[in-house]
């Protein structure tokens, strides 16, 4: 027998002991060595075509699609109130739907039921106390998508979460809605069009939850009002996007100035 063969056999037998087991079998080593794993991408929740940054939008007053409608279907009467006068702001990262916040307001005096006398009754007690609480305000705190996205990343369906305030009462609300994002673009002639965000929603409001109507609700005024909302928003201009913090800083500066003048 060749005397070199025992040495060769010994080396081959000892090889698995000298090489760490994960490497010997092609498995990743602890601590990141060995087989490299592909990084996982965080799934997008919002608009794939929106910029990945905090932006602010305001209601576009020129849009003819802005409208809020309430419909009351009672046994003895159907009442429809409409307004196109809406104020609102939306701020956050629309790409990821992070840090979303906003407010939307409708003044009672702007809701028209088609009858002047009925409008006046609607704004007085026991219906709503428009003198003390002149506006309906929805404060948006987050947008919860339903997980389905359009192929082009321009439309999402989900739920608007926040609080509704009217007639001196405030209630948590979950409003199903469809949102669309239209990116900024430039036409062939060179004209620029700013980005747009549209919101469409349909939901119900229980009048008892806001202490509206009390014992008069039922025959001529439905207990539950059907609400339809259509809004179009545009990017906020610098003078429209002042935050509460900047307002506080400004007030502090005014106070210091007043103190120095005193």
List descriptors.
12 strands; Lipocalin; alpha+beta; disordered C terminus; 262 residues; eight-stranded antiparallel beta barrel
Number of helices: 4
CATH topology of the largest domain: Lipocalin
**Rg, alpha carbons:** 30 Å
Q: Which CATH architecture of the largest domain is right?
A: Beta Barrel
- Separation, N- and C-terminal Cα atoms: 111 Å
Return the domain count. 2
Uncertain parts: 7-12, 21-26, 31-36, 243-255, 257-262
CATH superfamily of the largest domain: Lipid/polyisoprenoid-binding, YceI-like
Helix content: 10-25%
- Content-based structural category: alpha+beta
How is this structure best described in words?
The protein has 262 residues and is α+β, with helices and mostly antiparallel strands. The protein folds into two domains: 1-36, no CATH class; 54-237, Lipid/polyisoprenoid-binding, YceI-like (Lipocalin, Beta Barrel), CATH 2.40.128.110. Helices cover 17% and strands 40% of the residues. It has helices at 4-18, 21-24, 116-122, 244-261, and strands at residues 54-59, 67-73, 78-83, 87-93, 98-107, 135-149, 155-166, 169-182, 185-186, 192-193, 196-206, 224-235. The strands form two sheets. Strands 1-4-5-6-7-8-11-12 form an eight-stranded antiparallel beta barrel. A two-stranded antiparallel ribbon has the order 9-10.
